[in-house]
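Ticket #4471: structure export looks truncated?
Reporter: QA, pipeline team
Priority: medium

Steps to reproduce: submit the single chain below to the structure queue and open the exported record.
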Amino acid sequence: MSPEPRVARRIVVSGRVQGVGFRYALADEARSRNLGGWVRNRRDGTVEALLGGPQDEVEAVIAWAHHGPPAARVTSVEVEPAASDLGEFDIVSTL
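Actual output as written to the record:
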């Protein structure tokens, strides 16, 4: 059996995603799946994250990001490939 493919994805989540605990909830989701990467608020009101790890786990967090925590109202999630050499998951400074 071959090891599961590892991928990295950059996502940008739009909608009511700041001030609702989105970063912390996304970090919890990513950490619970042992993913590497980071999440941050952006000054334009979006949340950006870099996720790296087994493909199915990364895709599960992206699927979660389409709805987020209960108070969030997600309108879109942009996804693109990213570099895959990521450390432990962290919350980083606003861009």
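Status: closed, not a bug. The export was complete when the record was re-opened. Leaving a note from the reviewer for reference: The beta strands are 6-16, 36-41, 47-54, 73-81, 90-91.
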